[in-house]
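ok trying again, last paste got cut off:
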Amino acid sequence: MTPPILVARIESPLGPLTAAATRDGICMLEFTGPKRLPLQLAALRRRFRAEVASGRNRHIGRLEHQLAEYFAGRRRRFDLPLVIPGTPFQLRVWRALARIPYGETRTYGDLARRLGVPSATRAVGHANGSNPISILLPCHRLIGSGGDLTGYGGGLWRKRRLLELESGGSREA
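nice, full thing came through this time. structure:
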């Protein structure tokens, strides 16, 4: 029998996050709302073909510590094992997200060009929106071609605040 995926709530300055981990690493980090949580948990069950249980393990403990450092402005990189099943294209996009430096942004088109598929801007956007591990895989660092803030599952106000945190100042949008 597959061990359950452990799920815990982590408080943040931007509202609660739901974290999930297998015994191998973090598999979900999402801003939570009462309407979204059941869908997120169902997606975990499907993706991993495992039950979901409330609890913590060492990965969630380390995640909580590193997120506290991040929100306090003392951490720019996370060093946690991630467990992220996805299509080959999604995995390419998510790896590229992880390489966007702290405090910088890229457009969806920039990322598509970096991946060698300049016509795949929409596919990059879709893969970005499917990212199950926010903040660690910094989907908030992708912006529209005109510099506008677009699409963020946790809400555009959170995206703005994350970018402000990373830039050390305010961001007009």
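cool. The chain has two domains: 5-71, 88-167. The domain at 88-167 is CATH 1.10.10.10 (Arc Repressor Mutant, subunit A).
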